[in-house]
Amino acid sequence: MSAIAESVHLVQEAAAAAADKLAVDIVAFDVSDQLAVADAFLLCSAPNDRQVRAIVEAIEERLARLGHKPAHREGERENRWVLLDYLDVVVHVQHEDERAFYSLERLWSDCPTIPLDEAVEVPS
Fold it and tell me: How far is CA 72 from CA 48, 56, 86, 94, in A?
């Protein structure tokens, strides 16, 4: 089973919002075969805490316009690693240092990636 169309759409919208705020290393994984609790993960990063916060706000605003609000969020106080849980989609916005240290891509490397718009996939 692969990520459902609505989850893919949310990932693509969140990725576009992150790219608008200059997030780097944006990648999405279809985790539906590995996890029962989510269809997709979106990972992106920024070089400083302030930009992490701006990316999070942009994602929340765009998805709210589509009628989606996070069921849970973590890490907003420090803005080093903010997790937005939209139930079927989980968004991780990380400071570049946390991204390098925790290397979530390595954990989910067996999962297929979800194609993103070319403008979003520009390497950092």
Answer: 23, 13, 7, 16
Is the per-residue pLDDT at 50 higher than 90?
Answer: yes
Q: pTM of the predicted model, to two decimals?
A: 0.92
Distance CA 94, CA 81 (A): 4
Within 8 A by CB and 6+ apart from 58, the residues are 17, 18, 20, 21
Residues in the chain: 124
Dist CA 89 CA 25 (whole Å): 18
pLDDT tens digit string along 91-112?
999 999 999 999 999 999 999 9
